[in-house]
Amino acid sequence: MFFVLSSGRSGSLTIASTLDSYGNCVCIHHREPELVIESTQYYYGEYPGSRIAEVLRDTRPNDTQNEIYGDVNLQYSLIVPIIEQVFPEGKYIWLIRDGRDVAASMYYRRWFDPEDLKVPNSYKRARLQGDLTGDFSPSEWQAMSRFAKCCWLWKKYNLIIESHLKGIDQEKWMSVRLDRLKLTLPDIAKFLGLINETNVIVERLNVAYQSVTYWERWNIEERKTFESICGEVMDKWFPEWRDRDGIWQKINSETPDKAGLLIYLKRQIVNLPLKARYKAGEIKKRILRQY
Question: Gene3D superfamilies, alphabetically (predicted)?
Answer without folding.
Answer: P-loop containing nucleotide triphosphate hydrolases (3.40.50.300)
